[in-house]
Design a protein that fits this description.
The complex is a heterodimer. Chain A has 11 helices and no strands. By secondary structure, chain A is mainly α. Chain A has a domain at about 95-295: MetI-like fold. Chain A is globular, with a radius of gyration of 24 Å. By secondary structure, chain B is of the alpha/beta class. Chain B folds into 2 domains: about 60-145 and about 245-365, Periplasmic binding protein-like II (D-Maltodextrin-Binding Protein, domain 2), CATH 3.40.190; about 145-235, D-Maltodextrin-Binding Protein, domain 2 (3-Layer(aba) Sandwich), CATH 3.40.190.10. Chain B has helices at about 1-5, 10-40, 75-80, 85-90, 105-110, 120-130, 175-185, 205, 220-225, 250-255, 260-280, 280-290, 300-315, 315-320, 330-340, 345-350, 355-360; strands at about 60-65, 95, 115-120, 135-140, 145-150, 165-170, 195, 210-215, 230-235, 245-250. In chain B, helix 3 packs across helix 11 (about 260-280) and helix 3 packs across helix 12 (about 280-290). Classes of the chains: A mainly alpha, B alpha/beta.
């Protein structure tokens, strides 16, 4: 009887909550787009002014307008510009880079989650292996490149490794910190009911660590793109990373600056998506998720 | 119910996040832009040499952008400095700017950081097509030094025919373009070989990760030899892709307004290189003990490199026309090779050899007959 009553009372509440969540998300998207538009305009102005103030050579230092022309305006003069071809090339290259970013992201995030859980459950592991993780992070990848090539060759394993290294470390540190910041009372409660370490991890530590996870996710998203370009530059002829080198050899500064803009735009885009996911997930499963109900 | 529809905690959180999001976005974009700017920002011109009569020091101080780190490749420049040829020509001083980083001669020239740059037509020609007002006024190497290095102990590649189906390590960027030109000049395509991206280290070649490594004739083969291997080389210049390298590149503005400065410079360079090719030991000594001191160079290795380099600098044509000169045939070969590398340009847009011609006309005694080393 009591159960039936609770269910009946709960149902309408849930729909209202999800409707308001939808409103929230709608408002957030709108506000985000506006924020980005304003910062974009400010950046373009600062970019243009900086080049003017520094008397940068126009052949090398391209302005926002130059990048726009490179991408959207055809010209037959010298040097000729075929905008649609430029766009086609860059879209293809961006696709390759995004694919490599995804590989690095998945492996970096996956690896760090698994290892952070292992570090938390078996404490000595953290003291044993954290220094190794730090070595991976501090030794320049450029210096390790020949070794990585000799061990892994060229392919998705190397992409996963290079992208992973860039993404892995900040995530590992943040997650370990998150898992360790569970409240003593919650741990006691679970222990009293006979729960083991794994139960604590599942019921308390993971929700507690979620904000930490998402905070490092915001670092990981642009990091994965950087890692992918690094991989492409060091090991392949593919994607935006390698294109920068060949564009440099061809004195194609239009392309180099366009790549800069694209990489920035992609980073901002995925960073924003990460914050949306963060809001949605934390609202439902975060450590404060239940608190709104009690108020 | 009202408590569910507008959770106050969440709302406050949202505002704070929105603030961070703005900060994060601006930070991200600004960071990337700053990085980009740092890579390519160039301060305005600072060279201030005046033309005119070549009285002592009257030509001021000029900067020369080298194409690589200060090793034996610039032996002639070291001699010109040490023997006072630059000062005798009227310069107060000539600053040699080390290369090998991300800044090439073309960038240094258009940004006004150097008056003369050492580069190659495969880099200068695309820059000209993009609107950079540059010209090549002479060349140190009559033959480009590019080659495929393979090892007798592993998979020797002696002829173009041996190349089919092999795994080739090529550095991305300029070298990749050059290699594709080499394939094209020999009627091959990238599908006839397997291209592998590599850096400048030959360790992967020695470990057998690929069969050949794109190299400089003057450099990597000697390194392989030092590691106990028997190097096998397939030179591009002798196999369908002849073009000059280590060229003197200047802006059109310098040609138009500082012709005398360039003539004085070329004269000093000719004198410096004449001494250098005749004396590999002393050339190496300058590189090892003075100019490239921080590069930890090896004297014996540098002597070998100088000897190898001489076979690129000296030809029968050089003996009759003088150092740095280019015959019409060499000019047209270079233009054709550039075409194979995907750069279509005409000789008059890329070269202005008239300054060098005037130098030799005014100083016919600068033409020296050298002993050409067997390559």
């Amino acid at each position: 009887m009591a159960t039936a009553l609770t269910t009946a009372r709960r149902a309408p509440v849930t729909t209202t909550a999800s409707a308001s969540t939808a409103r929230f998300i709608g408002r957030r998207v709108g506000r985000t787009v506006l924020t980005i538009a304003i910062s974009l305009i400010l950046i373009c102005i600062a970019w243009q002014l900086a080049l003017i103030a520094l008397h940068a050579n126009p052949l090398i230092a391209k302005t926002p307008l130059d990048v726009y022309r490179y991408l959207f305006v055809d010209s037959a003069g010298t040097p000729a510009n075929d905008a649609s071809k430029n766009r086609e090339v860059l879209v293809g290259l961006s696709g390759e880079t995004l694919f490599h970013s995804l590989i690095g992201f998945v492996f970096g995030v996956g690896g760090s989650v698994v290892i952070a859980i292992a570090f938390t459950l078996i404490r000595p592991l953290e003291f044993m292996f954290m220094p190794i993780a730090m070595v991976l992070r501090t030794v320049p990848l450029l210096a390790m490149a020949p070794v990585i090539f000799l061990i892994f060759g060229v392919g998705w394993v190397t992409a996963a490794f290079v992208g992973g290294v860039v993404v892995f470390f900040p995530l590992l540190v943040n997650l370990t910190l998150g898992f360790n910041s569970v409240s003593a009372q919650s741990v006691d409660l679970i222990r009293v009911y006979g729960g083991n370490r794994w139960t604590i991890m599942r019921r308390v530590a993971i929700p507690t660590a979620l904000p930490h996870f998402f905070a490092s996710m915001r670092i990981a998203v642009p990091g994965a793109i950087t890692g992918a370009m690094l991989y492409e530059w060091l090991f392949t002829y593919q994607g935006l990373g390698a294109a920068v080198t060949s564009a440099k050899a061809q004195f194609d500064y239009g392309q180099i600056w366009a790549i800069g803009v694209i990489v920035t735009a992609l980073s901002v885009l995925f960073y924003t998506i990460a914050t949306f996911v963060e809001t949605a997930v934390l609202a439902k499963w975060g450590p404060d998720a239940g608190k709104a109900v009690t108020k | 119910m009202s408590a569910f529809s507008a959770p106050p905690v969440l709302k406050k959180d949202l505002d704070r996040r929105a603030f961070f999001r703005l900060g994060g976005t601006v930070g991200l974009v600004a960071g990337t832009t700053a990085l980009l700017a740092a890579c390519s920002t160039d301060s305005p011109s600072s060279t201030s040499s005046s033309g005119g009569a070549a009285a002592a020091g009257s030509l001021g101080t000029i900067a020369v952008q080298l194409s690589w780190i200060k090793n034996i490749e610039f032996a002639g420049e070291y001699f010109a400095t040490e023997k006072g040829y630059y000062t005798k020509a009227g310069f107060k001083g000539v600053t040699l700017l080390a290369g090998g980083g991300q800044t090439g001669a073309e960038e240094a020239l258009v940004a006004g950081q150097a008056l003369v740059g050492l580069s190659g037509p495969s880099i200068t020609a695309p820059a000209i097509l993009k609107g950079a007002p540059l010209k090549i006024i002479g060349t140190t190497y009559q033959k480009n030094p590019f080659c495929l290095l393979s090892l007798e102990e592993k998979t020797p590649i002696k002829t173009v025919a041996d190349l089919k189906g092999k795994k080739i390590g090529v550095q991305s960027g300029g070298n990749q373009t050059t290699f594709e030109g080499f394939l094209k000049a020999n009627g091959l395509t990238t599908s006839d070989v397997t291209l592998v991206t590599t850096q400048y280290d030959i360790a992967p070649l020695e470990a057998g990760k690929y069969d050949a490594h794109m190299s400089y004739l003057t450099n990597e083969p000697l390194l392989a030899e030092a590691d106990g291997f028997t190097p096998v080389t397939l030179g591009f210049a002798d196999n369908g892709l002849p073009f000059v390298a280590e060229t003197f590149t200047v802006t059109q503005d310098t040609i138009d307004n500082k012709r005398d400065t360039l003539k004085a410079f070329l004269k000093a360079e000719i004198q410096g290189w004449t001494d250098a090719v005749k004396d590999p030991e002393q050339s190496a000594k300058y590189a090892v003990e003075k100019y490239g001191k921080d590069q930890d160079l090896d004297q014996a290795e540098q002597v070998k490199e100088m000897t190898a380099q001489n076979s690129l600098v000296l030809t029968d044509d050089v003996n009759s026309n003088g150092l740095f000169t280019m015959t019409d045939e060499l000019v047209s070969e270079t233009i054709k090779s550039l075409g194979d590398m995907g750069t279509t340009i005409t000789a008059d847009k890329l070269f202005d050899l008239s300054i060098l011609k005037e130098v030799y006309k005014e100083n016919p005694d600068l033409i020296t007959s050298f002993t050409i080393p067997a390559s």
